[in-house]
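Listing 4. Sequential folding, example run.
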Amino acid sequence: MSKKKDFFSKYNYSILIPAQPKCIHFKECGGCSFQNYEYASQLNLKKEFLQNLFKKEIKLTPSPEQYAYRNKMDFVYAFGNLGLREKGNYKKVIEIRECQMMPSFAQEVYAKIYSSLQKYNVESYDYIEHKGFLRYISFRYSNKTKQIMLIFNSTTPDDVQNTKLENIFEEIKSLVTSIYWFQYDGLTDIPVPNIKPVKIIGTETIEETIGDKIYLISPWSFFQVNVDVAKEVFERIKENVSGNCIDLCCGVGAITIYVENKTTSIIGIEQVSQAIELANKNRILNKKTKPLFFVADMKDLLQFAPLEIDTLIIDPPRAGLQKKVCERILKSSPKKIIYMSCNPKTQKMDLDYLSKEYELVSLEGFDMFPQTPHLETLAILTRKED
C-alpha cells in the first residue's frame, strides 16, 4: 500500500495487528488495502483518523460483516484480463479469479462469465490506445433478495464480437435477474455510461432492502454498498428527523422513504432524472404518500425550501457541498442539519463553513467499507440561537 496516497498516511501503522489476507489477489489488486490487518486494528486506525481530523472523541460503529458485504462491483476487461486495476497503477489490470467482497452466489456468476470470455475469446478493450471491444462488466446484486443485475459495456461491435457476446448472454441469462448491454464509443472511462442500452434481458430493475423497506435499483442508481451498515446510519437519521424535511441528494429515495413517518412533510431533491423516476416507484412500492421528489441540482435548494425547514438531510458525493451550496444552506436556515458523508475530509471543510451559524452536536463514524481505508460519517448540527 502506498502511504503517500493513503487516507491515513501520517498515522502509526506499527500499532496494527497483522492478519492473513483472505483474498489470493491481495498483494496485487487495488480493491482492498487492509486485509493484512485484524479488523479490530482497522477500526482503531479509522477511529484515530477521525479523532485527529475533528479533534474530538468519536464513536465508530463496526460492520456486521467484514467480507462479502458489497452489493456492487465494477470489473474492467482490458489488455486480455478481467479484473481490477493493479494497486497504484492505473495502466495495468490484475486478472481476478475471485473477489472476497462479493457473496458466494455472485462469485459463482462471475466465475461463469470469466470462463465464457475465455471460451468464446471475446476481445477486451485497450483504454490507453482506445481500441478493442468489451470494456466493463458491472455487478449489482442484493445479499437479501439474491437478485443479480449484470451490466456489459462495450464499443460498437462487428458481427463476430456481437455473436460472441450474445452467446454469453444466452449461457448466463438463467442465472441472473437482469442483463444490460451498453455500446459506448466515447473516450471517457466509465463503467456505466449515461446512454440508452441497446439490449435489456430480464427485468429493468432489481430489488434491494434496508430494514423493512424495498428499493428498486437500476444501472444508474447510487445506493449504499453495505446495506447492514446503511441501516444503522438510517436509524440514527430517523431518530433525529422531525417536522418539515428536505432530503438533498436523495438518490432513489432511500433515506427519504426510510424516515418519512417521522416527518410532517418531506421533499427529495436529486439531479439524476433516472434516480427520481425510481424514487417515485419506490415511494409507491413502499406505499408512502408523503414524500415528494424533484429533479434538481443541490444548488437549487432554495427553490424547494418551505417557509421553515425543520430538518435538512444531506448525503452528497465525495466532493462534498462546497461553498456555493453551503451558502444556500445558511440562507435557507434549517433548524437542524443531518450530514451523511463518505469523505470525512470534505465534510470537515463543509462543517467548518456551516459553523458560522450552526453548532455540531453529534458526530459518529460507521465502517461502511471494511478492508479498505474508507468509512462513513454522520454529523448532526443545530442552528445557533440568536
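-- end of first protein; second protein begins --
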Amino acid sequence: MDPVTHALLGSTTAVWFTSRQRLVTAAVVGGCAALLADLDVLIHSSQDPLLQLEFHRQFTHALIFTPVGGLVAALLLWWWARGRATFRQTWVMGCWGYATAGPLDACTSYGTQLLWPFSDLRIAWSLVPVVEPVTTVLLAVFLALAVVRHHTRWAMAGGVAMLAWFGVAWFQHQRASDMAMVWAQQRGDRVEVLHIKPTMMNLVLWRAVYKTGPDIQSVALRPGLWGEARVYPGARARWIDAAQPVPGISMESVLGRDVRRFVRLSDDFVVIHPRHPEVLGDGRYALLPHTIDPLWGITLDPDHSGRHAPFDSFRAWGPETAGVLLHMLLGREGVPGLSRSAADAQPPTLNSGSSSGRS
C-alpha cells in the first residue's frame, strides 16, 4: 500500500506490543521499519528493465526477512532511540513494524512473495487498493489517540478497526466474485482463471478479468455499499501463450527470454496492447475496470532481439477517464465509453526499423 498507511500500521503494531513508557519510541521505530521493505525499488538495472519487476515485493517483503529488517531499523535509529530503550527493545520494535509490510501489501492486488525463499508464489488477496483512505484514516485517528492519551489500548482498537474494515472489503470481494461468475455463465463463458480486483481508492467498484478459452474477458462490477448492484460489460482480448513463438523473434534470444519472463510475472494474463500493437501488456490491470488497456508492458523489437525489452507504463489519466469511472462508481445505467477491444487487434507486426509510437 501507500507509504503513509505502511508507516501508520507499523507504528500501531509496534505500540500494540510495547509498554506505555516506550509508546512514542515504538511508534517512531515501528513506523520507520515498516517503510524499509519498499526499498526494493532501488533494485534496478538500466540494461535489464524487468529486473525491478522481478524483485518488486520479493525478498524484502518475505516474512523470514523480518528479523533482518528489524535489525536494520534498529541500527539506523539507535542514535535516537538510545536512552529511550535498549538495543534489544529497539530491535523488537523494528521487527513488529517491519513484519506488517509484507502482509499489508498482500492485501492489495499485485502479489507479494511472503513465503520466499520457500515458495515463489505471489500472494494477492485483492481486498483493498494500493491507496485506500478509510484504512489510512482509521489507523491515523487511533494512533493519535494512543499517543495523546498515552495508552496502548487505543493502538489495539485501531488494529481491530482496520481488521473490521478489511472484513467489509472481503465481503465486497466475495460479492463481486459471485456477480462475475453469474455474468460469465449467462454469457456462456467457462471461467478458467478469475481475478477480482478493487479499483482506485474505494471498495464500491471492482474489476473482474478472467480467462475463457483463448480469450481474456474484463467486466466492471458494482456490488455497492449502497444503491443497486450493476454490471458493466467490458472488453475481450486474446491472451498470449508463452509456449507459442512470437513472429520474428527467436524465443532463445534475450528478447524471447524476456517475453517468457514477462508472461510469468503477469500470471499468464498477457495481451497485445490495443493502442500499441508492438507492446505486450499485463491484462490484469487497467485504469478503467471494464477495459483491457494494460497499465504497463514490454515493447517487442525483433531488430534488436539481442537486447532486453524496454518496459513502459501507460497511464493516460484525464477528465474523460475520471468521468467514466465516476459514472460507474455512482451506479448509473448504461455502459460508459469502452476502448477498442484488444480482441480486434491483429498479432503485432514487427517490421524492421518500426518505431514504438509510445506515449
